[in-house]
Amino acid sequence: MRKLVRRSRWMGPGTLVVLLFLAGAYVVHELTPPPAGTGTGAPAGAPVYFDVVRGARLSVVAAELADSGLVRNPFLFTLLGRATGTDRRIKAGEYAVRPGTPALELLSLLQRGMSSLDQVTIPEGLTAREIARVLFDHSGVDTAAFLRAVRNPSFAARMGVKASGLEGYLFPETYSVLRGSRAEDVARLMVAHGMRVLREEMSAASSPPPYTAHEIVTMASIVEAEAQDPHERSRIAAVYYNRLKQGMRLQADPTVAYAMGGRPERIFYRNLELDSPYNTYRNYGLPPGPICSPGRAALHAALNPAGGSDALFFVSRGDGTHQFSSSMKEHARAIARIRSASSTAVRVEAPR
Question: What SS3 state is found at 314?
Fold first, then answer.
């Protein structure tokens, strides 16, 4: 009697095809990025910014991309990177990626790196209005929308800035900005970077002055605007702190220029009477806020003024450096000496 063997319906070739199809569909689904705006914390269509540090493993990058809502399954994304050889060729840098970017395109971007055409450099010492102009010229960022964000107290509060706006907190650096990026996204990127640098500098300061973070940024902005020689930043900061301790007006020319709303070639004595809370020739103490965006070096100087300095005055030599003095009498002699040695007009920083 022949023994009958029942063939399992699960072992049929049709079933195998179905299983392979389902497995493939699962992989495709998991590698398909979430819809734009899902889990990114940003409006639909807005680019998401993330950093890739030098030497980072693709699995770590994939996890960060998943946290940012740019990939669904970091494990399968990493496997795809290994299969294509991308895992060994990812480039460090700052990336801007629109949600919904396919996995293979995202891997290609990580391998290629952000194009130099996407990079925009914001120099130290620019005002928010000047930064807005740079962003528009380079990346088409809406100037009016950018300035609205910068001047919005609610937006500043959401960014952790204890001020009425973001003047001074738009950190000068090179950024990856896609053409057409939303103004708020770019402002958010710059402020987040600036706050990170500020925290680092405040943590590293040996004995930071007894001022708030906002006051430190304000002082750093004045130092940034005054110092042409990088070696003088801490000395200039020391002068202004010494003047504050003595109850003297700062009498800083850049604050008058800011109050005037531009960058005048010269500041005349009549300008020193301008009625503005930013005019430190009329008002005591620091101005209400920063007058430009200071870089890391200026923040460092504001947190680490030159120790042992009793200077209360300085005057420009006309070559980018200054003569520092501890008394009004010494300061007056320095002014006379420099004027006699040069026919150019001398800027007088400190009491007239």
Answer: strand
Residue with tokens 């200071």, as numbered in its chain: 294
Place of tokens 């952790």: 160
Enter the tokens of residue 121. 């450099």
Nearest CA-CA partner of 135 in 191, 195, 178: 178
The confidence band for 346, taking pLDDT boundaries of 50, 70 and 90, is very low
Please state whether 124 falls in left (phi above 0), alpha (psi between -120 and 50) or beta.
beta
63 has pLDDT over 80: yes
Residue 299 to residue 234: CA distance in whole angstroms: 10
- State whether residue 322 is helix, strand or coil: strand
Per mean pLDDT, which range of 14-28, 165-179, 246-260, 323-337 is the poorest? 14-28
Name the 3-class secondary structure at 96: strand
Task: Using CB atoms within 10 Å of the CB of residue 128, give its burial: 0 to 12 exposed, 13 to 18 middle, 19+ buried.
Answer: buried
Q: What is residue 28's predicted lDDT score, i.e. its pLDDT?
A: 55
Pairing of strands 348-349, 313-316: antiparallel
* DSSP strand pairing (93-97 vs 48-52): antiparallel
CA distance 302 to 241: 9
Distance CA(302)–CA(205), nearest Å, equals 10
Query: Rounded to an integer, what distance in angstroms lies between the CA atom of residue 298 and that of residue 233?
Result: 7
SS3 state of residue 11: helix
Rounded CA-CA distance 225/257 in Å is 10
Give the least confident one: 19-33, 254-268, 269-283. Answer: 19-33
Give the C-alpha separation, 61 to 203, whole Å. Answer: 27
- Residues 49-60 as b or e (16 or more Cβ within 10 Å = b): beebeeeeebee
Say whether 51 sits in a helix, a strand or coil. strand
User: For residue 348, which amino acid is it?
Assistant: V
Query: What is the reported pTM?
Result: 0.71
The answer to whether 222 touches 240, Cβ cutoff 8 Å, is: yes
